[in-house]
């Protein structure tokens, strides 16, 4: 029935500008990085460089690096889960709200955190979570605690900060998908006697699964690449891959090792995308990435 | 698909023309091509303010050039990635540890020529000692900072930092990225072991230093002191003294075992196309009146012996041969050679 | 979906266009008006819980902004709570500081250029993937989304090294190219989302009525794809304005974006100036969002 089915047509040419951009500005540089991760030095400046696997061997042989990789993934998973749990209700409200002013207000409330800028937002969380910050001062003055509660300088603080930054991404992804769910399906379920909760669990939730998976994928990918927030809210004592990569570049001047770590991070991300796509295909029966 | 040389040239040409087009859009002052440009690095904050408002423009006027200062840290990776024959900086201003690393990588010249920089004759010995590459234009003393409103009394030793009563309000640095942190490692070796190269003793001491709040830059440490998050921590005298007159309850402690030297060092890149101007800049920064202005703004101790600071600065800063002789200069060449191992160890020690 | 057949082609087409042209979002509100009072029967505790959770989430989202505003107005030069007063000194400092103003302007400029490039390239690419059926479409799509997966700091460093190899220095187009790379995925995602929900029968109908393929494209496909592209453009703008790791390596002295300037400032001075910078950014962006909403009607557009 659809005429635009499997034949490649002229519209495919519209890909060319992007292909050019990616080839020049993504593949060449990343390829360069991959090559650097296998060299003994920087060929631009050093006279004799050879190939070596020592950077990768260093990562594999030392359990510390595996721990760093796992910490990075763990923070990503927690961030994604919490973002989903608190983003879904808001996305649902935003998708179903009837008044235009209400929708605009919600939209601005969701966009505003994104507009503050990552540096300032993290710094605002420091103002909230640090020992002399807002929350601790309030708790102490209300007499609920005697010593400050450690809300940052650990993974908890990082997850809180990252969730705050990425929830808008989750909400905006979900609200589109939820908005496109035909409300008459929910009506039909309720007319057939289902409670609102059941109608939600058995109609709305399954239909919003593509959005859930797309949003989760986005938030996970972004959170495992985060740098500013983990560094500031982790108090420099939680080590994630991006932080280690940055440290190798800026303080150890070891671009080869940093490149190897970067390739590892890329590999982890790619494995997860493929896994997600498989799950997406299996669960929702759709065949296209949303 | 392999790129033919023609395709590469064509792309370069396109890129160049696009660059020219957009460049004309973006930077109107690009047109001032007659004046030579000197690319240097510098700190932000108060240093950056005074350089861009007073000292920089005065230099530009006197030497008829344009001074471009990069304040976006980190500097060394950018210099490292740029080509040797066209380095992105002509003069590199950073701390001594990074300068040594730069020399090892062949990025900067190890010594400054006294014929091209006459003011070198007037500096203290520490500024051109064998522990320094290039020339140190200022220095600070690394010691302990403390809050004066917590009832701490009689702090005279570095070892006070290990006392359990400071748990939760102790401050230190991220060793891999910060020179104060690195100097502190060597101090731990001296305090608890056989000397600054006794790393095993240092690691053991660092383990016992937890819990501790870490920052990557002294500016952040200053703020932790001001807000009370840290009540005793490692900091340089400049970081405490610069709040003089603001009624802040903080003070600097000179420990009995000695203070470490945190130098501000200038070096020149070998591939620089404006070497004469670069040397002139180094010489300019060593002029007594320039040194005085900067020292009194950020509370650094000037390297030029001939500088006469106002009384209140003179009292606290290191302005006599006797005072500067007490500064401990550590062996950065040795430290940089162990850096990878040290970083691996301390990253493991300081985990949440 | 509306049943076919009884109406003439033009009547059917206008009905379908009317249904789709009000876009998928408002279609629901049209249906909702016909809905019986089943909505009212939603249990009170359930409704209260739903609202409570949402209010809590909103508080979570907006609390740090409130803190930033408080901090921007508090005269003390470090983090202090409770605040001691209200003062505009940080705003004065922000507006007086040449560096900040220049950085703000430069960030806006880079973001505008990036948005244009990303929207154009990303929109075309999405169109090509969805309608052009290129070989290996799924791989192509994965590749186009991959800049999100690689830590941006590596992308920045890799680009810097490449520019050095090509001996072009750190030009503006280099920075814009880097930003475009990391924002294209958003445009592609949103445009594809709209294209996938597109009713192909609209295009068929247009062609059945005699429109040429290019006319169909310009008068049916493009206008209906606009919401997705616009949403992507908004994202591209925000992401570029706030972009940090790529800019870190690609900005040159004197031409820094605002996040870099703020981060450097934070290293030396942790006072209310960054709060002031932030408040100004938020107000600016809110103005843009309000203006867009008033003129174009954002409701249907901002859906990923």
The strand count of chain C comes to: 0
The CATH topology name of the domain at 89-295 in chain C reads MetI-like fold
Q: What is the CATH T-level topology of the largest domain in chain B?
A: D-Maltodextrin-Binding Protein, domain 2
CATH architecture descriptor of the domain at 89-295 in chain C: Orthogonal Bundle
Question: Oligomer, anyone?
Answer: heterotrimer
- In terms of structural class, how would the helical and strand content of chain B be classed? alpha/beta
- Proportion in β-strands of chain B: 15-25%
List keywords for this structure.
heterotrimer, A: 290 residues, mainly alpha, MetI-like fold, globular, disordered N terminus, disordered C terminus, B: 352 residues, alpha/beta, D-Maltodextrin-Binding Protein, domain 2, 2 domains, 11 strands, 16% strand
Summarize the structure in words.
The complex is a heterotrimer of chains A (290), B (352) and C (304). Chain A has helices at 16-36, 54-61, 63-96, 100-116, 118-129, 134-141, 155-180, 183-191, 196-207, 209-224, 228-233, 241-250, 255-284. Chain A has one domain: MetI-like (MetI-like fold). Chain A has 290 residues and is mainly α. The relative contact order of chain A is 0.12. Chain B has 2 domains: 34-139 and 263-325, Periplasmic binding protein-like II (D-Maltodextrin-Binding Protein, domain 2, 3-Layer(aba) Sandwich), CATH 3.40.190.10; 141-261 and 332-349, D-Maltodextrin-Binding Protein, domain 2 (3-Layer(aba) Sandwich), CATH 3.40.190.10. Chain B contains 13 helices and 11 strands. With 352 residues, chain B is an alpha/beta fold. Chains B and C meet through helix 1, helix 2, strand 2, helix 3 and helix 7 of B and helix 5, helix 7, helix 8 and helix 12 of C.
State the gist of this model.
With 290 residues, chain A is an all-alpha fold.
Helix/strand layout:
The complex is a heterotrimer of chains A (290), B (352) and C (304).
Chain A: H1 16-36, H2 54-61, H3 63-96, H4 100-116, H5 118-129, H6 134-141, H7 155-180, H8 183-191, H9 196-207, H10 209-224, H11 228-233, H12 241-250, H13 255-284
Helix pairs in contact in A: 2-3, 3-7, 3-10, 4-5, 4-7, 5-7, 7-10, 8-9, 10-13, 12-13
Chain B: H1 5-26, E1 37-41, H2 45-63, E2 66-70, H3 76-81, E3 91-95, H4 96-104, E4 135-147, E5 170-173, H5 179-192, H6 199-207, E6 213-215, H7 218-227, E7 232-236, H8 237-241, E8 250-253, E9 259-268, H9 275-285, H10 288-298, E10 301-302, H11 311-316, H12 321-325, E11 327-328, H13 332-349
Helix pairs in contact in B: 2-10, 4-13, 5-6, 6-13
Chain C: H1 9-21, H2 23-34, H3 44-73, H4 89-96, H5 98-131, H6 137-145, H7 152-166, H8 172-196, H9 200-208, H10 213-242, H11 245-250, H12 258-268, H13 273-295
């Amino acid at each position: 029935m659809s005429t635009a089915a499997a034949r490649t047509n002229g519209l495919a040419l519209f890909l060319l500008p992007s292909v050019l951009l990616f080839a020049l500005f993504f593949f060449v540089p990343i390829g360069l990085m991959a090559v650097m991760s296998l060299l003994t030095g920087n060929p631009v400046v050093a006279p004799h460089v050879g190939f070596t696997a020592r950077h990768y061997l260093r990562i594999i042989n030392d359990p510390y690096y595996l721990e760093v990789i796992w910490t990075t993934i763990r923070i990503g998973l927690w961030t994604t889960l919490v973002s989903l749990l608190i983003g879904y209700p808001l996305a649902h409200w935003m998708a179903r709200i009837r008044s235009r002013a209400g929708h605009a207000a919600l939209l601005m409330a969701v966009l505003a955190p994104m507009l503050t800028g990552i540096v300032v937002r993290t710094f605002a969380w420091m103002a909230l979570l640090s020992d002399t910050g807002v929350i601790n001062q309030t708790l102490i003055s209300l007499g609920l605690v005697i010593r400050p509660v450690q809300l940052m300088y650990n993974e908890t603080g990082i997850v809180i900060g990252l969730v705050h930054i990425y929830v808008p991404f989750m909400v905006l992804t979900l609200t589109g998908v939820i908005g496109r769910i035909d409300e008459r399906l929910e009506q039909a379920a309720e007319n057939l006697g289902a409670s609102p909760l059941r109608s939600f669990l058995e109609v709305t939730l399954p239909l919003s699964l593509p959005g859930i998976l797309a949003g989760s994928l986005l938030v996970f990918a972004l959170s495992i690449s985060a740098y500013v927030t983990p560094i500031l809210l982790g108090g420099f004592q939680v080590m994630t891959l991006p932080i280690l990569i940055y440290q190798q570049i800026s303080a150890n001047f070891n671009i080869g090792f940093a490149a190897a770590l970067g390739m590892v991070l890329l590999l982890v991300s790619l494995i997860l995308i493929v896994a997600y796509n498989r799950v997406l295909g299996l669960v929702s029966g759709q065949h296209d990435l949303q | 698909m392999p790129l033919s040389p023609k395709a590469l040239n064509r792309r370069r040409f396109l890129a160049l023309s696009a660059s020219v087009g957009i460049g004309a859009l973006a930077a109107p002052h690009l047109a001032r091509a007659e004046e030579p440009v000197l690319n240097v690095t510098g700190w932000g904050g108060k240093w950056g303010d005074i350089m861009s408002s007073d000292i920089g423009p005065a230099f530009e006027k006197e030497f008829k050039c344009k001074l471009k200062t990069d304040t976006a840290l980190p500097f060394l990776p950018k210099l490292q990635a740029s080509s040797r024959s066209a380095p992105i900086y002509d003069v590199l201003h950073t701390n001594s540890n990074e300068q040594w690393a730069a020399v090892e990588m062949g990025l900067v010249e190890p010594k400054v020529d006294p014929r091209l920089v006459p003011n070198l004759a007037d500096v203290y010995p520490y500024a051109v000692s064998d522990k320094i590459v290039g020339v140190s234009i200022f220095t600070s003393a690394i010691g302990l900072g403390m809050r004066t409103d917590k009832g701490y009394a009689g702090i005279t030793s570095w070892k006070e930092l290990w006392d359990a009563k400071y748990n939760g309000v102790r401050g230190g640095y991220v060793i891999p990225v910060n020179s104060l942190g690195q100097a502190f490692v060597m101090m731990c070796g001296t305090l608890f072991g056989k000397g600054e190269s006794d790393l095993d003793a240092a690691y053991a001491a660092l383990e016992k230093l937890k819990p501790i709040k870490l920052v990557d830059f002294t500016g952040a440490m200053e703020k932790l002191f001001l807000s009370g998050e840290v009540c005793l921590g490692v900091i340089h005298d400049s970081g405490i003294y610069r709040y003089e007159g603001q009624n802040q309850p903080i003070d600097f402690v000179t420990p009995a075992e000695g203070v470490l030297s945190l130098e501000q060092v200038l070096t020149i890149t070998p591939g620089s196309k404006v070497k004469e101007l670069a040397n002139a800049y180094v010489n300019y920064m060593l002029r007594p009146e320039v040194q005085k202005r900067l020292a009194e703004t950020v509370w650094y101790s000037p390297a030029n012996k001939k500088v006469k600071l106002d009384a209140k600065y003179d009292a606290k800063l290191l302005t006599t041969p006797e005072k500067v002789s007490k500064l401990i200069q550590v062996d950065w060449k040795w430290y940089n050679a162990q850096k990878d191992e040290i970083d691996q160890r301390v990253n493991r020690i300081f985990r949440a | 979906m509306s049943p076919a057949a009884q109406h003439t082609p033009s009547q059917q087409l206008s009905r379908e266009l009317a249904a789709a042209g009000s876009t998928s979002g408002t279609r629901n509100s049209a249906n909702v008006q016909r809905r019986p009072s089943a909505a009212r029967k939603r249990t009170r505790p359930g409704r209260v819980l739903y609202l409570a959770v949402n209010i809590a989430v909103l508080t979570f989202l907006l609390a740090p902004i409130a803190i930033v505003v408080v901090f921007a107005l508090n005269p003390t030069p470090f983090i202090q709570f409770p605040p001691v007063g209200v003062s505009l000194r940080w705003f004065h400092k922000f507006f007086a500081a040449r560096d900040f103003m220049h950085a703000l302007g430069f960030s806006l400029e880079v973001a505008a250029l990036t948005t244009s490039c990303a929207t154009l390239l990303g929109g075309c690419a999405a169109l090509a993937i969805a309608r052009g059926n290129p070989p290996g479409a799924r791989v192509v799509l994965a590749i186009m989304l991959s800049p999100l997966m690689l830590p941006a700091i590596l992308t920045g460093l890799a680009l810097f090294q490449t520019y050095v190899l090509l001996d072009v220095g750190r030009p503006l187009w280099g920075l814009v190219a880097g930003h475009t790379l990391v924002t294209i995925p958003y445009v592609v995602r949103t445009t594809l989302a709209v294209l996938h929900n597109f009713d192909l029968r609209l295009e068929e109908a247009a062609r059945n009525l005699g429109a040429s393929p290019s006319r169909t494209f310009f008068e049916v496909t493009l206008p209906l794809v606009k919401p997705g592209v616009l949403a992507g453009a908004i994202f591209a703008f925000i992401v570029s304005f706030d972009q940090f790791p790529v800019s870190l390596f690609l900005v040159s002295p004197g031409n820094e974006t605002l996040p870099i300037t703020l981060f450097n400032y934070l290293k030396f001075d942790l006072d209310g100036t960054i709060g002031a910078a932030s408040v100004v950014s938020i107000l600016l962006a809110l103005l843009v969002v309000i203006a867009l909403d008033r003129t174009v009607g954002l409701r249907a557009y901002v859906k990923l």
